[in-house]
Specification:
With about 60 residues, the chain is mainly α. It is about 50% helix and about 0% strand. It has helices spanning about 25-30, 35-50, 55-64. The longest helix is centred in the middle third of the chain and has 13 residues, at about 35-50. The radius of gyration is 11 Å and the shape is globular.
Length: about 60
């Protein structure tokens, strides 16, 4: 999969609306329905910004 994310587009390209306003637990609840490429995008965004372990751990679980 090739993900094209324009510089500065940020959370707008993620599969979760209002991502930056959500708590970690709210994000985790929304991860189940995402495709592999969307999970990768959320992981990259989260690692680049807040690095919340609960979100990154859940993505790891869903990806394996």
């Amino acid at each position: 999969d090739c993900l094209l994310v324009a510089a500065g587009s940020g959370a707008a390209t993620l599969g979760i609306p209002d991502y930056d306003e959500l708590s970690a637990s709210q994000v985790v609840e929304r991860l189940d329905g995402l495709q592999a490429g969307e999970l990768d995008a959320v992981r990259a965004y989260e690692e680049a910004h807040r690095s919340r372990r609960t979100i990154l751990y859940k993505i790891e679980q869903l990806s394996s």
